[in-house]
Each structure stands twice: as C-alpha cells, then as structure tokens.
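Predict the 3D structure for this chain.
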Amino acid sequence: MTVVGPFGLSVRDQALESDVQTGLAAVEAGLLDATKSEVPFITEAAQHLVRAGGKRFRPLLVMLAAQFGDPYAPGVVPSAVVVELTHLATLYHDDVMDEAEVRRGVESANARWGNSVAVLTGDFLFARASHILADLGPEAVRIQAEAFERLVTGQILETAGPRDGRDPVDHYLDVIGGKTGSLIAVSGRFGAMMSGADEGVVDILTQYGERLGVAFQLADDVLDIASDSRESGKTPGTDLREGIPTLPVLHLRARAEAHGRAEDVELVALLDGDLTDDARHAEALRLLRAHPALEKARRDTVRYAEDARAMLTPLPECFAKAALMELCDAVVHRAG
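Done. Predicted structure below.
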C-alpha cells in the first residue's frame, strides 16, 4: 500500500501507483509550463500558488477516471492541467473577494502584490487553461464552459444570498454544487472521456465527481472551524471571520431559530458581532467546536461521500474503483 500525491490516497496496486504517479508528475510539469510568461513578474505571480503545492485533488481524480479507458491517451494529462489551472485561477479571485492573507500556507497573492495583480493573474491562468483546452476539441471546450458557468453562478448566488422563503441550507448546497462540485465533476468526466471510456462510465464518474465535490467542500467547512493552520493551510476560522455562511453556522442558525435555546441564540449573536476582534473570534471558534451544529455538518459530509461511493457500484471491480472509493473515505477523514 503506497500513499500517492499530497492528498494522501493509498494505492494497493503497483501498476496503478506507477500510472498515477507518472500522470501527476506530468501534470506538475504541465502546470509550470503553462504558467510561464515572457514577463518574469507574470511568471512569478502565476506560479506563486503552483509552487505552494496543494492536494492536486482534481488531477488525481482525472488520473483515476482515466483507468477505465486508456490512461496513456494524449488528452488525459492536458485535461488534468486544465482543471487544476481553472481551480488555481478561482483561488486568486476568491482570496481577493475574501480579503484572505494566507493560502496553502503561504502569503496570498493579493496580500503580496495587491488585489489588481491577483485578479489579473487569475485571468491569466483562465486564458492559459483555455489555450490548452482548444487543443482537446470542441466537446471539451463546451464541457468546460458549462462547468465554468456553473462555478461563476455558484459564486454569484453565494454573494447574493438566498431569496426570500428559500431554506438557507438548500441555497448553500446549490452554491457549493456550482462552486466546487462542477469542476470536480469535470475532472471525473475528462479523465474518463479523454481515455476513451464507455459513455456510461463517463456519466457515472461525472456524477461521482459532483457528489464527491460537495462532500469535499463540506469537509472544508468543518476544517475551517475544527482544524489548525497546519491541517488546512490557512488561518482557522477564516470563513467565520469573513462572515461567510458555511454549513456548521447555517445549522446553528436554523437550530437557534427553531428552538430558541439561550446558548444557541447567544452564539448566533456572537457570530453576528465583530469577529475581527481576536478574543471574540477565538471564543466563537471554541463554542462552535463543541456545538452539535459542527457534528451535524460532519454527518452531512459523510452522507454526500456515501452518495458518491454508491455511484461507483455499476463499475467493474478493479484497483481504480477501490481507489475512488477510498477517496470518499479520505474526504470524510478530513472532516474528522
């Protein structure tokens, strides 16, 4: 059993391990090549988060999905580079919107060079992803465009908030289905499609990726409250401090509204106050870590991961299928 990639997936077959390791190494080289510019400053800014590392979760999913066809097909590695470049570009933009200071354990691009450079660097990465995508054919371009539309729609919905009468939790799950699930679904789809897998397999791995992507984001929500910076690569409680309504907080608010318990109402009031104050922020984190709302969010993470696992049932038994199932376990493990 060998651990593959920064995400820590355990692979139980030497041939699969070799394919995945080789593929991820090629993706890493492709990312560095795609982020080079004739302007040295652009190269430095574009490679800032590439060199900071990361889980490479999306390229890993591309490599595993490709095992259901020809994993050495020429479009597999470039498609993995496309999804990771797109993901990286959204991180530059997200950090500007969130005024984040740390990303992947290093200073964020906006903190280092300012918002304008960070936004334009994200745009540069989108452009490079599009350039690679053009060589993969019109169907790949269409799929990526649809996913990108969903991703941006999810971001807009998050910014706008739920419409009157809409359950905030349902709204939030729609948001992360777009913001996170869409691109992870494309990772499964591209891996299978570029490898020449059967259409039914492509559909299964697309739906698997969608569900796994939601579970992945819910695990991040839990980590934002429950972890320290060594685990998450960013400052604990960043979403909390920024007032971003993640699932544990939404569960808390629903519980306070439904039952009106004094301790819940008081915690909601604390969250609605000034969390730029370090003492108030630390107290909010402490109380949320012990609150049933956090455990409820963990259970939701498990449910989506199990839904993803169930999607794999029709696939033939093989080491790649076992690895995809283990990815579900790895996502749940992140949430504790």
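The first helix runs from residue 14 to 34.
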